């Protein structure tokens, strides 16, 4: 048993030193809208503010490259602001983004980084507010009774600046590729799009 524990500890220490794993709590402000078409007609949605909060894990491949994977609670949605009607839609997602980042300069010094990667997201809930009345959105894939498909995926890009003390800022852009309209097609489609700024603090093991 002692030999097994020692071997496990040695393996962990070896992986930790080679991988340079770090965990970072992260909080962000973001602006999102929906790219939507109904019967081939584009709906003119506006950006609405939201936020995301969660944690980011970074695996350092070498001095220049790292892989980031995160888990966020992310508030997205859109605004519709026309003379005929005004409404706000909030969509609450559990989101898992991945980035492959390239770091300019030594990672233990102040430096810039840039990268891109895919994301997966699951819609937990949503609602639309018009005037003082709120309507709950049904999450599911049934074209007859549901409003938003639960699964979403797309691409992210980011550029950021990290300080030697572990604090970093990241600007990001997100482009949804999944059609989240239940039963949607090329003429009936809804996709998420947004950008934002987040801050995190890297906790090294």
CATH classification class: Mainly Beta
**Number of distinct beta strands:** 11
Give the overall shape.
Answer: elongated
Q: Under the CATH scheme, which architecture would be assigned?
A: Beta Barrel
Strand order of the largest sheet: 1-3-4-5-6-8-9-10
Q: Which residues form runs of ≥5 with pLDDT under 50?
A: 11-18
- Assembly type of the chains comes to single chain
Structural category is mainly beta
Within the CATH hierarchy, at the fold level, what is the topology? Porin
Number of domains: 1
Estimate percent helicity: under 10%
* Biggest sheet details: 8 strands, antiparallel, barrel
Portion in beta strands: over 45%
Distance, first to last CA: 26 Å
Radius of gyration based on Cα positions:
20 Å
Order of helices and strands: HEEEEEEEEEEE
Mean residue pLDDT: 90
Lay out the secondary structure:
Elements: H1 2-19, E1 22-38, E2 41-43, E3 48-60, E4 65-81, E5 86-104, E6 111-130, E7 133-136, E8 151-162, E9 167-176, E10 189-201, E11 203-204
Antiparallel strand pairs: 1-2, 1-3, 1-10, 1-11, 3-4, 4-5, 5-6, 6-7, 6-8, 8-9, 9-10
Report on this model:
The chain has 205 residues and is mainly beta. The protein has one domain: Porin, CATH 2.40.160. 9% of the residues lie in helices and 63% in strands. It contains one helix and eleven strands. The chain has one helix at residues 2-19; strands at 22-38, 41-43, 48-60, 65-81, 86-104, 111-130, 133-136, 151-162, 167-176, 189-201, 203-204. An eight-stranded antiparallel barrel has the order 1-3-4-5-6-8-9-10. A hairpin with a 4-residue loop joins strand 4 and strand 5 (86-104). Mean pLDDT is 90; it is low at 11-18.
């Amino acid at each position: 048993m002692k030999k097994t524990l020692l071997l496990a500890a040695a393996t962990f220490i070896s992986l930790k030193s080679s991988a340079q794993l770090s965990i970072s709590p992260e909080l962000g402000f973001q602006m999102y809208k929906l790219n939507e078409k109904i019967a081939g007609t584009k709906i003119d949605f506006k950006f609405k503010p939201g936020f995301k909060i969660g944690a980011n894990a970074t695996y350092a491949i070498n001095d220049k490259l790292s892989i980031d994977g995160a888990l966020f609670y992310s508030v997205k949605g859109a605004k519709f602001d026309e003379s005929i009607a005004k409404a706000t839609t909030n969509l609450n997602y559990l989101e898992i983004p991945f980035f492959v980042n390239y770091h300019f300069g030594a990672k233990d010094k102040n430096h810039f980084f840039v990268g891109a990667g895919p994301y997966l997201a699951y819609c937990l809930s949503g609602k639309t507010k018009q005037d003082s009345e709120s309507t709950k959105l049904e999450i599911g894939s049934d074209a007859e009774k549901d409003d938003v498909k639960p699964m979403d995926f797309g691409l992210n890009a980011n550029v950021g600046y990290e300080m030697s003390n572990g604090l970093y800022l990241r600007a990001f852009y997100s482009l949804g590729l999944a059609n989240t309209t239940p039963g949607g097609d090329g003429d009936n489609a809804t996709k998420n799009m947004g950008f934002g700024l987040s801050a995190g603090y890297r906790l090294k093991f």
